[in-house]
Amino acid sequence: MLGETDPNMRRATAVVNGTVITGTDVDHRVALVSAASQNAISDEEMVRLRMQVLRNLIDETLQIQAAALQEITIGAPEVNQSYQRLAAQNFGQNTEAMDAYLLSIGSSPASLKRQIQGELAWQRLLRRNIAPFVNVSEEEVNDIMKRLEESRGQDEYRIGEIYLSATAETDAAVQQNAARIMQQLREGGSFVAYARQFSEASTAAVGGDLGFVRLATLPPEMATAAQSMQAGQLTGPIKIPGGYTIMYLIDKRQVLTADPRDAVLSLKQISISFPEGVTEEAAGQQVEAFTQAVGTIRGCGDAERAAQTVGAEVVTNDQLRIRSLPEQLQATLLQLQVGQSTPPFGSIAEGVRVLLLCGRDDPEANDGPSFDQLMSRMEDERINKRAQRYLRDLRNDAYIEYN
Which residues form the PpiC domain (predicted)? Predict the structure, then answer.
């Protein structure tokens, strides 16, 4: 597997209970991960990546085999439906475009469909063999809801996780692997893609997204780390009971409190552009005239008049959520009253603009998760723990030959 390979030759890299995993299978799956990294992967790191991908393919094979033994099969129509949903999310419902992209990066539609098949088979197996035996009582859920109400106004965190299980024997190797994944993420790798390929938590299928959680519901090690994180920040690997985790803070808000960043704004963008080769002095004079014109605006109905005086362009956007904007701009817009504008911003190359606030629909108070949502979340957590033990048992019972 680690030597020179002929791309036209399909060789067995591993045989899992009689099912062959070829070098081509590994190559195609490695290409998916490599494409998610914005930087070149060194030869040494590529060797490690191939080993990790092989382990993932072995687990995936065991999951499909275990489902088949329970007469659970995932047919091509179901796999294609999920494949089309991915194409819709990333290529505007154009599956041919996604096919071409996968081939262009050295992967294949068949490789991604195989991964989808494994995820669907494992989820269905867990629903049959584990979920029916996981119980969460009404008293437990009511207790959580009571504590949620008591913590109203406190921070809660939307966290992405990449979880790698470890035993006493594998601890050092798993820690090193987690550190390498962390380095790839810091160099621009896609957290969602790495979570789908490497995380052993049930959240892997959704890119590692835990959703919004309170610190009290996290392992103490993760809770401590989250307190000092800012949105968009990575940290890890963090040692937790059972293994290591890499955390990505997607967002933060307050429990049962309306988040002002969920307000929907009506804005007018007023902008000017500069001719090619303009001098800084001439551009500065144009910006000064633009700033003075914007300062004369008396409400949104007056924007077009002011814009015409300096040759500016006006664009209206009536459904813009604050949180969809860059973080620096969010803070500025939150301070504006209707009829006010931001200070001018931009550059000679991109043009200079202001945003004029014409309306604002504030979000309603957040009532938090419902009883059913909380119960479902607690059940998922318990199913995930049992699923990890189930997969470990499958590995222990498997007959695997390596080439």
Answer: 154-251
